[in-house]
Amino acid sequence: MDLLSILPIINKYLDQFFGTQVPEEYVSYLKEGEEFIPYFLGGAALMILIMIFLIIRVSRKRSVHKGAKKTPLSEKAAEKQLAQLEKAHLKRQKEEDQQRKKAEAKKNEARLAKLEEEEKRLQEELAKKEEERRKSQILQKELPSQEDAPAEPVNFIDRLKKGMEKTRNNLVGGISNLVLGKKEIDEELLDDLEELLITADIGPETTERILSAITEKFKREDLKDPGILHEMVQTEIVRIMGKNYPAPTTEEKHPLVYLFVGVNGVGKTTTIGKIAAQFKAEGKKVLIGAGDTFRAAAIEQLAEWSQRAECDIFAKDAGSDPSSVMYETVQKAINENYDVVICDTAGRLQTKKNLMEELKKMIRVMGKLIPDAPHETYLVLDATTGQNAIFQVRDFREIAELTGLIITKLDGTAKGGVVIGIVNEFDIPVRYIGVGETVGDLRPFNAQEFTQSLFA
Ligand SMILES: Nc1nc2c(ncn2[C@@H]2O[C@H](COP(=O)(O)OP(=O)(O)OP(=O)(O)O)[C@@H](O)[C@H]2O)c(=O)[nH]1
Ligand SMILES: [Mg+2]
Q1: Which residues line ligand 1 (CB under 6 A)?
Q2: Is the overall model pTM greater than 0.85, yes or no?
Q3: Which domain holds residue 299?
């Protein structure tokens, strides 16, 4: 082998890997043709070259295997590759996010379904209890005789105050106890107030509203005196209850059609009798529609009230279709120029689907004669029922456009706080309140009067 001929190659590799070259003296020897350099030196150099070559091959293969770049990338290519990697990473992350969200949504759905089921069960239980309570009362109680009414004019406010006694003791008495010995308003006092409002049947949503109004006022005006807590709670309650909702008049709607709905025994028929008497006293021509065709006694009860109020009644036999009674009542009112039509309906559990559907039909047939009738649909609520009243509003509101509430039995062991919660949550006005069984025991609702009965 001629070493001189491969000398440039040897030099190239020696330079690349060791930064050196074959020493000049050896090169000179070779050039001068001196043959004493043993042939094995050339062979060894060749072997070294082959080994270097093999090492490079193996190490490159390994790098390729590890996914490293074969050759150093240009800046642009590196950026592109990085962008691709980032894109792939983002995509994977997005997919993982989506999967997690899906799993969470599924979990939430299941939780919601469970809660709804629980609420339904609770509602049914409450409705059942209400029904039992009602049944345990004397079902066909004799109508209260108006002669039994006190000779003195009924002191409405006193009755209301008496009825609200329990709520007042809880609420007003409770606030007094809270502030007793306290020097200033702090977090703890506000926490206690929250608990108190909830136990006074005001409901969580309304409690929250009252509390945040108070907290804000304290922060803004830097008030510290616990003594004005009463006044502030009262102001908020007046604000909730005092919202003005104009009611239609007989000048605007003629005849003005009222529909009364509600569960069994809340006082629909009694209240219709009282309102009819009041309209009559104002000189209006009043017609009552006996839409409760379930019980003969219900028709008789209403007939007696119509006599008492000296107004007319339209009734059919027990068992007739209530929608046809509604239709014919409104028809008669139009034909005979009545000012006011008040329609009674049978009490129905809000959980009974078919009865609720029947109510929808009654409303529909009235609308065939007067498109916007009934002009006022009142849900009658018994103030002694407490939180169940909230469920009743929620369910009846789904089938009828409720324009007002009538709260009866505010003279008994009333849970008046619930009225505040309902008005705030549903934004429906209270139109009348009842504090007894006689004509004079019903009055148009007055927010000031109501809150005074709570705080005075
Ligand atoms: N203490 C008190 N009792 C009332 C009041 N309003 C109604 N009642 C009594 O509650 C009972 C039921 O009244 P109704 O008018 O028959 O009730 P309803 O909603 O028509 O009942 P159903 O027709 O069975 O659905 C009667 O004994 C009424 O005298 C009230 O404001 N205070
Ligand atoms: Mg009735």
Answers
A1: 141, 144, 262, 264-270, 292, 298, 346-347, 408-409, 411-412, 434-437, 441
A2: no
A3: 256-455
